[in-house]
Amino acid sequence: MSAAVRPIAESEFPEWLQAVHSGFLRPERADASEIAQRAKHTDFARTLGAFDETTGRCVATFRSFAQELTVPGGASVPASAVTNVAVLPTHRRRGLLTRMMATELAAARERGDVVSTLIAAEYPIYGRYGYGPAASIAEWEIDVSRTGLDPRWSGPADGGRIELVDAAEARAIGPGLHEGLRAVSPGTVSRNARWWSLATGLEEMSSRPYQEKFHAVYRTAQGEPAGLVVYGADAHWTDAKVPLNTVQVKDLIAVTPEAQRALWHFLCSIDWVLKVRTGYRAPDDLVAQLLPDPRAARIVTASDFLWVRVLDVVRALGARTYAVPGVLVLEVTDPAGPAAGRYRLDAGTGECAATGEPADLRLDASALGSLYLGDESAARLGALGRIVEERPGALALADAVFRTARRPWCPDIF
After folding, report:
1. Is the overall model pTM greater than 0.85, yes or no?
2. Is residue 393 a known part of a binding site?
3. Strand 76-87 relative to strand 3-7: parallel, antiparallel, unpaired?
4. Domain region containing 52
5. 44, 65, 210, 414: which is the annotated catalytic residue?
6. Catalytic: 13?
7. Domain check: are 264 and 176 in the same one?
8. What element of type H or E holds 69?
9. Is 414 assigned a catalytic role?
10. Annotation-wise, does 286 bind a ligand?
11. Low-confidence ranges of the chain (pLDDT < 70)
């Protein structure tokens, strides 16, 4: 039984969306409201379906959209963000994802995208398409009673202040703060106006009803916003009517260390709250060390998160900065094609170009994706056999060149 892979027509979108629901184990039908909302923001040229040639049914789905990815040094590169990937259980192991991925990667390179990104629901799938895990996440649960913070805390000691705001004000302040975060945080991706509309209830998906949240802004002593936290709280009480509530952080943006410290201390000072769940943070986030007793914060989640696939090696490596000077010749193998070649990287000048010089290191596109944002160690990949050292000392140099002082982090699921 074969299937044709192609961009869908707008008239096929309801069936395509239902296939997404089925692939993600959601048995409910996509209603007219959801179909209309999603269709309005869907680029059908970038929305692929696989259609069974016997029944004509949509049996696999794939979609991408434009995104900007921040790389070490603060520059952004155009990315093709992949999402809504699903193959129905009746049509697995027939090469449908491989064909959809090949179509997308060729189109992305033709569009001029430098990388492709995705959040992998399953680890084994995407390495064979040249993606590598490039940024991880961690989540902490804070036991407020153990933090050692003064329970009489009444505000930041730096002259700043924290104020609760409504969703409209958060929507006005948030984009600027996020862009400030993106400028200093590799791995962070762009958020468009619709992202903020959905996050603040201006627009509501029928399949995901908006839930009201609290929004708190940190302002400096000069009154400038430097941080925003969005959070919710449960309503858990004992039989004796004692509150045992947990705060769940939905989003926390801080563009200065002072803002980060103030917002975490604020969350831990809220009456009736015994625990704070931090939401997904960078693995080296300061949250635990901002508490007098860091052991009050325990990691409850630690995982790979953002995966990166380099499409244009010259532009990708030329866009980021490097910790130390040095010259490396990388030979990249890439069965899918776009990244294959031999490249000379001068980390001192940031220049990268194709070359015929002998290779210092040999690696595949997936390993290059893992190295790209600075989270993975070249030495570790060498020990795992993922990178082959052709010139003695090249692995150690690559480790020094690619690694970043702070680990990359992507706050957003897409």
Report:
1. yes
2. no
3. unpaired
4. 3-130
5. 414
6. no
7. yes
8. strand 58-70
9. yes
10. no
11. 1
